[in-house]
Structure prediction request, 332 residues.
Amino acid sequence: MNNNKHEFAEDSFFISRRKFMAIGSAFLAVMAIPVGWFASKVASRNDYIKSRSAGLYKDDSIAKLRVSHANPAVEKYYKEFGGKPLGHMSHELLHTHFVDRTKLNS
Amino acid sequence: MHHDQHDMRPIQKHPLNVRVFHYILLLSFLPLAATGLLLFFKPLSQSGMQLTYDIHIVAGVVLSLDALAFTLIAFDRVVLFIARVFSLSERDVKWFMVLGGYPQKFLLGKKVPVPPMNKYNSGQKLFGACVVIGGTVLILSGLVLWLIPHAAPRDAVWLLGQAHLVAGLLLTAFLPVHLFLAVYRFDDFKAMMIHGNVPYHDAAEYTPLWVEQEIVPVTANQQRNK
Prediction:
């Protein structure tokens, strides 16, 4: 009993053409749903970042002091404590350090 | 029943393309299920988990290509499979009420009447529907989780991760059931694993509606295709 000796097989087209088209197109439509969902997710992925930066720009535009080096507190810090910008003390205090916590390499 | 009373004339149940697809699916899904469980419970060392992850990726790519290729090359088989597994009738309700007579056969050793089934019984149809839907979910979510986990929107990645987990656990839970019943139905096992054919008496016993409504002598097909 091997492949080319079978005496019976399924009728080569036992569902109607109309049903075949309906099921085939329903399958393709369902496959398109996750693609559409993901595309809309990607399209709106930066919405909250955009509204956040819009809020920051708005805050800036109505602020009295609009640059950090004009901030009296910062001026006072450098004058009385930190020395000069990018100096040794400022580097020690204001720069952060990172630890590589990656678990998987690929 | 005595052996020579059996009608052994072969009916083709699983054509060659289906068997090749099933073999690649089998060889890719088994490592995927094993490594998937390992990735979930994380019992190994850093390098062991790394190897597990790499195996999961390679097997996942093989399974995805298998599914894509079969959908493109044998779209008619995909449509037929969907038509079969998503068909629902009163017979399916009655089948599930006796669970195909299998518990009665295994636990009590008695035979109960089972409604006549088409090519797949109701349990196989439920499994088939879970494989179609769950497999699609696993492939699509797996691609995103593998390739663009940091570029894709993070809530979408979280949702896809949960979907990947649920679908993976569901299909992995089906696996021992599928393996056991596949070997139990040994004529069908040989058909899928070796030559594609089941003997007439086996098909008539387990899949009477299929034999009645869809099976024709091969000469009829040859004449039609001329």
